[in-house]
Protein backbone atom coordinates (compact mmCIF):
# COMPACT_ATOMS: atom_id res chain seq x y z
CA UNK A 1 0.00 0.00 0.00
CA UNK A 2 1.31 3.43 -0.90
CA UNK A 3 2.50 5.61 1.93
CA UNK A 4 0.75 8.62 0.36
CA UNK A 5 -3.01 9.05 0.00
CA UNK A 6 -4.25 11.95 -2.11
CA UNK A 7 -7.63 13.64 -2.11
CA UNK A 8 -8.01 15.11 -5.59
CA UNK A 9 -10.60 17.82 -5.07
CA UNK A 10 -10.86 21.59 -5.56
CA UNK A 11 -12.63 22.15 -2.24
CA UNK A 12 -11.32 24.99 -0.10
CA UNK A 13 -12.03 23.52 3.35
CA UNK A 14 -11.23 20.03 4.63
CA UNK A 15 -13.04 18.68 7.67
CA UNK A 16 -11.53 16.03 9.93
CA UNK A 17 -12.74 13.97 12.88
CA UNK A 18 -10.19 12.70 15.41
CA UNK A 19 -10.93 9.75 17.68
CA UNK A 20 -8.28 8.55 20.07
CA UNK A 21 -7.44 6.03 22.79
CA UNK A 22 -10.43 3.68 22.63
CA UNK A 23 -8.51 0.87 24.42
CA UNK A 24 -10.65 -1.94 23.02
CA UNK A 25 -10.30 -5.52 24.30
CA UNK A 26 -10.63 -9.04 22.95
CA UNK A 27 -13.84 -9.37 24.96
CA UNK A 28 -16.35 -6.59 24.16
CA UNK A 29 -17.60 -6.81 27.76
CA UNK A 30 -14.20 -6.00 29.26
CA UNK A 31 -13.75 -2.80 31.26
CA UNK A 32 -10.87 -0.38 31.72
CA UNK A 33 -10.97 1.19 35.19
CA UNK A 34 -14.70 0.59 35.39
CA UNK A 35 -15.69 1.70 31.87
CA UNK A 36 -16.74 -0.70 29.14
CA UNK A 37 -14.52 0.63 26.37
CA UNK A 38 -16.54 -1.01 23.58
CA UNK A 39 -19.73 0.63 24.80
CA UNK A 40 -18.13 4.08 25.16
CA UNK A 41 -16.47 3.84 21.73
CA UNK A 42 -19.76 2.81 20.14
CA UNK A 43 -21.52 5.73 21.81
CA UNK A 44 -18.94 8.20 20.52
CA UNK A 45 -19.30 6.86 16.96
CA UNK A 46 -23.09 7.03 17.22
CA UNK A 47 -23.07 10.65 18.32
CA UNK A 48 -20.50 11.61 15.66
CA UNK A 49 -22.96 10.35 13.05
CA UNK A 50 -25.84 12.21 14.66
CA UNK A 51 -23.97 15.52 14.41
CA UNK A 52 -24.33 15.51 10.61
CA UNK A 53 -20.87 17.07 10.44
CA UNK A 54 -19.74 16.88 6.80
CA UNK A 55 -16.20 15.62 7.44
CA UNK A 56 -13.81 14.14 4.89
CA UNK A 57 -11.75 11.65 6.89
CA UNK A 58 -11.00 10.24 10.34
CA UNK A 59 -7.72 10.25 12.26
CA UNK A 60 -7.40 7.50 14.88
CA UNK A 61 -4.42 8.54 16.99
CA UNK A 62 -3.37 5.45 18.88
CA UNK A 63 -4.09 3.09 21.77
CA UNK A 64 -6.79 1.52 19.66
CA UNK A 65 -6.54 -1.79 21.52
CA UNK A 66 -5.53 -2.40 25.15
CA UNK A 67 -4.63 -6.10 25.08
CA UNK A 68 -3.01 -6.62 21.62
CA UNK A 69 -5.88 -8.90 20.60
CA UNK A 70 -6.86 -9.82 17.06
CA UNK A 71 -10.52 -9.32 17.94
CA UNK A 72 -9.85 -5.85 19.33
CA UNK A 73 -8.37 -4.64 16.05
CA UNK A 74 -10.98 -6.44 13.94
CA UNK A 75 -13.76 -4.89 16.02
CA UNK A 76 -12.22 -1.44 15.62
CA UNK A 77 -12.44 -1.89 11.84
CA UNK A 78 -16.02 -3.12 12.04
CA UNK A 79 -17.02 -0.24 14.33
CA UNK A 80 -15.61 2.54 12.14
CA UNK A 81 -17.34 1.17 9.05
CA UNK A 82 -20.43 2.94 10.30
CA UNK A 83 -18.75 6.30 9.71
CA UNK A 84 -18.44 5.57 5.97
CA UNK A 85 -15.20 7.55 5.77
CA UNK A 86 -11.56 6.64 5.28
CA UNK A 87 -9.80 6.13 8.62
CA UNK A 88 -6.05 6.73 9.02
CA UNK A 89 -4.26 5.42 12.13
CA UNK A 90 -1.06 5.67 14.13
CA UNK A 91 0.12 3.44 16.98
CA UNK A 92 -0.01 4.34 20.66
CA UNK A 93 2.05 2.93 23.48
CA UNK A 94 -0.52 0.18 24.15
CA UNK A 95 -0.75 -0.93 20.51
CA UNK A 96 0.96 -3.95 18.92
CA UNK A 97 2.12 -2.81 15.50
CA UNK A 98 2.47 -6.20 13.77
CA UNK A 99 -1.23 -6.80 14.35
CA UNK A 100 -2.12 -3.25 13.37
CA UNK A 101 -0.39 -3.76 10.04
CA UNK A 102 -2.08 -7.14 9.61
CA UNK A 103 -5.63 -6.13 10.50
CA UNK A 104 -5.93 -2.36 9.95
CA UNK A 105 -5.75 -2.47 6.16
CA UNK A 106 -9.42 -2.94 5.39
CA UNK A 107 -11.27 -1.10 2.64
CA UNK A 108 -12.08 1.83 4.91
CA UNK A 109 -8.97 1.73 7.16
CA UNK A 110 -5.76 2.97 5.56
CA UNK A 111 -2.16 2.53 6.67
CA UNK A 112 -0.94 5.57 4.73
CA UNK A 113 0.97 8.14 6.79
CA UNK A 114 1.09 10.99 4.27
CA UNK A 115 -2.20 12.58 3.24
CA UNK A 116 -2.40 15.24 0.54
CA UNK A 117 -5.59 17.29 0.79
CA UNK A 118 -6.49 19.10 -2.41
CA UNK A 119 -3.94 21.76 -3.37
CA UNK A 120 -3.19 23.41 -0.03
CA UNK A 121 -2.73 20.96 2.87
CA UNK A 122 -0.92 17.83 3.90
CA UNK A 123 -1.17 15.66 7.02
CA UNK A 124 1.92 13.82 8.28
CA UNK A 125 1.29 10.96 10.72
CA UNK A 126 4.26 10.03 12.90
CA UNK A 127 5.10 6.89 14.85
CA UNK A 128 6.21 7.89 18.37
CA UNK A 129 5.86 4.43 19.91
CA UNK A 130 8.72 2.89 21.87
CA UNK A 131 7.84 -0.78 22.16
CA UNK A 132 7.23 -1.94 25.71
CA UNK A 133 7.28 1.43 27.48
CA UNK A 134 4.66 4.18 27.87
CA UNK A 135 6.79 7.19 26.89
CA UNK A 136 7.38 8.25 23.29
CA UNK A 137 10.35 8.91 21.03
CA UNK A 138 10.66 9.98 17.40
CA UNK A 139 13.48 7.87 16.01
CA UNK A 140 16.03 9.23 13.52
CA UNK A 141 14.37 7.56 10.53
CA UNK A 142 10.98 8.99 11.50
CA UNK A 143 12.41 12.50 11.77
CA UNK A 144 14.21 12.05 8.44
CA UNK A 145 10.94 10.99 6.81
CA UNK A 146 9.19 14.03 8.27
CA UNK A 147 11.90 16.36 7.01
CA UNK A 148 11.80 14.80 3.55
CA UNK A 149 8.04 15.23 3.22
CA UNK A 150 8.16 18.83 4.42
CA UNK A 151 10.95 19.59 1.96
CA UNK A 152 9.08 17.89 -0.90
CA UNK A 153 5.91 19.96 -0.34
CA UNK A 154 7.06 23.29 1.13
CA UNK A 155 4.11 25.16 -0.39
CA UNK A 156 1.56 23.10 1.54
CA UNK A 157 0.24 23.90 4.99
CA UNK A 158 0.93 20.99 7.31
CA UNK A 159 -0.80 19.26 10.20
CA UNK A 160 1.58 16.96 12.13
CA UNK A 161 -0.01 14.07 14.03
CA UNK A 162 1.50 11.77 16.67
CA UNK A 163 0.37 9.88 19.77
CA UNK A 164 2.52 11.22 22.61
CA UNK A 165 2.19 14.66 24.16
CA UNK A 166 4.55 17.63 23.92
CA UNK A 167 3.15 20.00 26.53
CA UNK A 168 3.03 19.40 30.25
CA UNK A 169 -0.32 18.29 31.62
CA UNK A 170 0.57 19.56 35.09
CA UNK A 171 0.45 15.94 36.26
CA UNK A 172 3.81 14.45 37.19
CA UNK A 173 2.62 10.85 36.85
CA UNK A 174 1.42 11.45 33.28
CA UNK A 175 4.20 13.76 32.09
CA UNK A 176 6.80 11.06 32.63
CA UNK A 177 5.10 9.31 29.68
CA UNK A 178 5.58 12.22 27.27
CA UNK A 179 7.51 12.50 24.00
CA UNK A 180 11.15 12.42 25.08
CA UNK A 181 12.70 14.35 22.18
CA UNK A 182 10.41 17.31 21.37
CA UNK A 183 13.49 19.50 20.80
CA UNK A 184 14.43 17.34 17.82
CA UNK A 185 10.92 17.64 16.43
CA UNK A 186 11.07 21.42 16.82
CA UNK A 187 14.39 21.48 14.97
CA UNK A 188 12.92 19.61 12.01
CA UNK A 189 9.83 21.82 11.83
CA UNK A 190 11.53 25.22 12.29
CA UNK A 191 12.67 25.76 8.65
CA UNK A 192 9.14 25.14 7.32
CA UNK A 193 6.88 28.09 8.15
CA UNK A 194 3.77 26.45 6.69
CA UNK A 195 3.62 23.87 9.47
CA UNK A 196 0.53 25.09 11.30
CA UNK A 197 -0.51 22.61 13.95
CA UNK A 198 0.33 19.48 15.95
CA UNK A 199 -2.31 16.99 17.03
CA UNK A 200 -2.03 14.13 19.54
CA UNK A 201 -3.93 11.85 21.92
CA UNK A 202 -2.45 9.79 24.78
CA UNK A 203 -3.31 12.08 27.70
CA UNK A 204 -7.09 11.45 27.74
CA UNK A 205 -7.90 15.16 28.09
CA UNK A 206 -8.43 18.26 25.99
CA UNK A 207 -5.62 20.68 25.16
CA UNK A 208 -5.78 23.72 22.88
CA UNK A 209 -2.57 25.66 23.30
CA UNK A 210 0.62 26.67 21.48
CA UNK A 211 4.20 25.37 21.29
CA UNK A 212 6.94 27.16 19.34
CA UNK A 213 4.20 29.05 17.54
CA UNK A 214 2.29 25.92 16.48
CA UNK A 215 -1.32 25.32 17.42
CA UNK A 216 -1.22 22.24 19.69
CA UNK A 217 -4.31 20.08 20.17
CA UNK A 218 -5.00 17.05 22.35
CA UNK A 219 -8.31 15.25 22.44
CA UNK A 220 -10.32 13.34 25.04
CA UNK A 221 -10.30 9.56 24.91
CA UNK A 222 -13.37 7.68 23.79
CA UNK A 223 -13.27 5.96 27.22
CA UNK A 224 -11.67 7.06 30.52
CA UNK A 225 -10.50 10.64 31.13
CA UNK A 226 -7.41 11.74 33.11
CA UNK A 227 -7.78 14.83 35.26
CA UNK A 228 -5.11 17.48 34.55
CA UNK A 229 -2.96 19.18 37.20
CA UNK A 230 -2.83 16.14 39.50
CA UNK A 231 0.55 14.77 40.56
CA UNK A 232 -0.87 11.36 41.37
CA UNK A 233 -3.06 9.20 39.13
CA UNK A 234 -6.51 10.82 39.03
CA UNK A 235 -9.52 10.02 36.86
CA UNK A 236 -11.96 12.70 35.71
CA UNK A 237 -15.75 12.86 35.59
CA UNK A 238 -15.77 14.38 32.08
CA UNK A 239 -17.35 12.26 29.38
CA UNK A 240 -15.73 10.56 26.36
CA UNK A 241 -15.35 12.69 23.27
CA UNK A 242 -13.81 13.45 19.91
CA UNK A 243 -12.47 16.44 17.98
CA UNK A 244 -13.59 18.22 14.82
CA UNK A 245 -11.05 20.18 12.75
CA UNK A 246 -11.42 22.42 9.69
CA UNK A 247 -8.38 23.17 7.52
CA UNK A 248 -8.86 26.25 5.32
CA UNK A 249 -7.10 27.07 2.05
CA UNK A 250 -5.36 30.10 3.61
CA UNK A 251 -3.80 28.01 6.40
CA UNK A 252 -6.43 28.92 8.98
CA UNK A 253 -7.62 26.21 11.39
CA UNK A 254 -10.86 25.97 13.33
CA UNK A 255 -11.46 23.21 15.85
CA UNK A 256 -13.66 22.09 18.73
CA UNK A 257 -13.98 19.17 21.10
CA UNK A 258 -17.31 17.40 21.41
CA UNK A 259 -18.37 15.06 24.21
CA UNK A 260 -21.18 12.54 24.30
CA UNK A 261 -24.55 13.85 25.50
CA UNK A 262 -26.85 10.85 25.36
CA UNK A 263 -25.12 8.49 27.80
CA UNK A 264 -22.87 8.69 30.85
CA UNK A 265 -19.73 6.70 31.58
CA UNK A 266 -18.09 7.03 34.97
CA UNK A 267 -14.93 5.13 35.95
CA UNK A 268 -14.06 3.43 39.21
CA UNK A 269 -12.50 6.30 41.13
CA UNK A 270 -10.92 3.86 43.61
CA UNK A 271 -8.43 2.73 40.98
CA UNK A 272 -4.85 3.96 41.42
CA UNK A 273 -3.43 3.24 37.96
CA UNK A 274 -3.51 0.88 35.00
Write structural notes for this entry.
This protein is of the alpha/beta class and 274 residues long. It has one domain (4-259): Purple Acid Phosphatase, chain A, domain 2 (4-Layer Sandwich), CATH 3.60.21.10. Helix content is 21%, strand content 26%. The chain has helices at residues 37-50, 70-80, 97-103, 140-152, 172-175, 182-189; strands at 4-7, 13-19, 31-32, 35-36, 57-60, 86-89, 109-110, 114-117, 121-125, 157-161, 195-200, 207-211, 214-218, 241-248, 253-259. Strand 3 (31-32) and strand 4 form a beta hairpin. Helix 4 packs parallel to helix 6 (182-189). The longest helix has 14 residues, at 37-50. The chain is globular. The model has no long low-confidence stretch (mean pLDDT 96).
Detail the poorly predicted runs. Answer: none
Termini separation comes to: 35 Å
CATH A-level architecture:
4-Layer Sandwich
**How big is the Rg?**
17 Å
Number of strands: 15
Number of domains: 1
Mean pLDDT comes to: 96
Total number of helical segments?
6
> How are the strands ordered across the major sheet?
1-8-9-10-11-13-12
What fold name stands as the CATH topology? Answer: Purple Acid Phosphatase, chain A, domain 2
CATH superfamily: Metallo-dependent phosphatases
Amino acid sequence: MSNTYQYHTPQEVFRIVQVTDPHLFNDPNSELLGINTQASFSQVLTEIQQQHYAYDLVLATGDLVQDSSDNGYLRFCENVKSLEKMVFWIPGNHDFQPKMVEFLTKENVNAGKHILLGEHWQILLLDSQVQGVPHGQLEAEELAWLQAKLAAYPQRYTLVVLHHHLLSTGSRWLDQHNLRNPHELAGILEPFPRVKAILYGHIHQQVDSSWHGYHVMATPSTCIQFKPDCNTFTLDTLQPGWREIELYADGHIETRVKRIQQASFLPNFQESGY
